[in-house]
């Protein structure tokens, strides 16, 4: 690495990007932030006195050793990098490393690689495919899961930056060159997409069956059908006014990348495809900006807050009638859906050439 405290241009100060950039500043890196939303830039500089802000990606990259891209989509990433007047590539110096942390299709990484070669002329620009996972809280704490791939020398060159943003045990170096990281992230998001939807279905079913939803959660979270997403997301369902954790649009975007990649490989993903339709239905209902746990409303259209209102008591508590569906049946449903989703993910692993051990 050229400097003990390399200069970093950070593009994309959204919910996760802001936390990542702020953590880098607190860790001693020199960071220049860039975002199209001026209030995010103002907040970044105000809350991080040692940080700076730039009006354009090109300006942010002046003298930068690393450019971290953390925008929401490839549609945003392309002009950020390659706009004729403001694009970052116009400001990149020789041996700058572009770290693509956005979740994008593997094919897009190949496209960026080719565009960098043609746009950068004789300059040597390093590229690392490095999608992240973990949410805003882990981003701010520097404990993300990172799926890094690229030329081994390039990954090693950026190791200090990657390690700073990741959990000590969750910086995964994915073999296979560029695109490997994005492929691994796609597999990771199959589980996320299925498990988030299943969490809403399970809690909605428990509420409709008449269970005390907190009792149902306590039982199901310890059972064989539980998942990290269930334990993480279900508690938010008890408070309809809680602060947003992760929006429907984010998981819908990631799932859409997976299903479009699967279509390009003529590979069926029926379980994830069903979950995708739930996310799209929620977005069409106007809930896209809300927390993804709002999917419970799809199962409880006439009583959208039933999971919350039934927390602490059951609908059958005043009568001798037990809940209409047992918790074991709901647990069995979760197990079945999760097993089918796992089979899908592992089969898609093989099709993409991703090592299943990951």
Keywords:
358 residues, alpha/beta, 16 helices, 9 strands, globular
**Biggest sheet descriptor:** 6 strands, parallel
Can you tell me the overall shape?
globular
Order of helices and strands: EHEHEHEHEHEEHEHHEHHHHHHHH
Rounded to the nearest angstrom, the distance between the terminal CA atoms is 28 Å
Secondary structure: number of strands: 9
Mean pLDDT: 93
Radius of gyration: 22 Å
- How many helices? The count is 16
Major sheet strand order: 3-2-1-4-5-6
Q: Ranges with pLDDT <50 over ≥5 residues?
A: none
Structural class label = alpha/beta
Q: What proportion of the residues form beta strands (DSSP E)?
A: 5-15%
Fraction of helical residues: 40-55%
Short description:
With 358 residues, this protein is of the alpha/beta class. The chain is built from 16 helices and nine strands. 50% of the residues lie in helices and 11% in strands.
Please give a structural write-up.
With 358 residues, this protein is α/β, with parallel strands linked by helices. 50% of the residues lie in helices and 11% in strands. The chain is built from 16 helices and nine strands. The chain has a six-stranded parallel beta sheet with strand order 3-2-1-4-5-6. A three-stranded mixed beta sheet has the order 7-8-9. The longest helix is centred in the middle third of the chain and has 30 residues, at 180-209. The chain is globular, with a radius of gyration of 22 Å. The mean pLDDT is 93.
